[in-house]
């Protein structure tokens, strides 16, 4: 990884190598942090970097801090300022992935609520190979942790150990991605992505009470599918065998964007190629996020 020049730590833009926390801090000891992944999309025509759906990310970031009982978070205005300053300092002229974390710093123990630190990093990141070719998925033997154990709805660092176990198993077994079922045996989500399928022309995705993160990309897909394709989405329980019956399956998230799934447990999905609804959604999503389609202006925050 080629590190950019600067990161943001506790109110200051600092050289990348200076963005450090102490090993005794609660975030290092117990993973007590919450975070957001945000994309900035470079638009070559207008020479602009657009941060996508920042307001929604900041709303979820504040919710995660409240749910984890952090001391008062810093204001959204200050955070937007920090995001913009960091992207400007690094002079990014490419699509980037930003990671913004609120964490418990200092010398506290498990119950510490502060001091709350803020760290922001941003790295160039283009689309994944699988978003063009399609991905192979494994139904994981790891279970998505339930809401009354570790709530998937809260984007806290420690949740990602569940995702890590599933992801590592899938990769060792030769798959691109893992799909996790929840404690009721219904489809939940993938590590850092939500899942959709197409059955008989309709989009279907696990509802918000299936141990998923309330994903901003998921909500964007639902809205764009209705607006541009006239396709409605049903949010409900999804059985694992329905994924094999489906004509199309894809997963989505800020990092993964929209990625087609062409096989599940080595069984081909649909034609074995990215399907027409998925392909159209990929194009519409990209056009809106980069601003080549100027609709939904309020979703894009310009950096320059
Ligand atoms: C567990 C989990 N599910 C789903 C998603 C997708 O959410 P979003 O579209 O808001 O990035 C993410 C990524 O943030 C995630 O970490």
TrEMBL record:
Its cofactor is pyridoxal 5'-phosphate. Keywords: Amino-acid biosynthesis, Aminotransferase, Branched-chain amino acid biosynthesis, Pyridoxal phosphate, Transferase. The keyword Amino-acid biosynthesis applies. One of its GO terms (molecular function) is L-leucine-2-oxoglutarate transaminase activity. Pathway: Amino-acid biosynthesis; L-valine biosynthesis; L-valine from pyruvate: step 4/4; Amino-acid biosynthesis; L-isoleucine biosynthesis; L-isoleucine from 2-oxobutanoate: step 4/4; Amino-acid biosynthesis; L-leucine biosynthesis; L-leucine from 3-methyl-2-oxobutanoate: step 4/4. It catalyses: L-isoleucine + 2-oxoglutarate = (S)-3-methyl-2-oxopentanoate + L-glutamate; L-valine + 2-oxoglutarate = 3-methyl-2-oxobutanoate + L-glutamate; L-leucine + 2-oxoglutarate = 4-methyl-2-oxopentanoate + L-glutamate. Pfam families: Aminotran_4. One of its GO terms (biological process) is L-valine biosynthetic process. It comes from the Bacteria. Its EC number is 2.6.1.42. Belongs to the class-IV pyridoxal-phosphate-dependent aminotransferase family. Acts on leucine, isoleucine and valine. This is Branched-chain-amino-acid aminotransferase. It comes from Bradyrhizobium shewense.
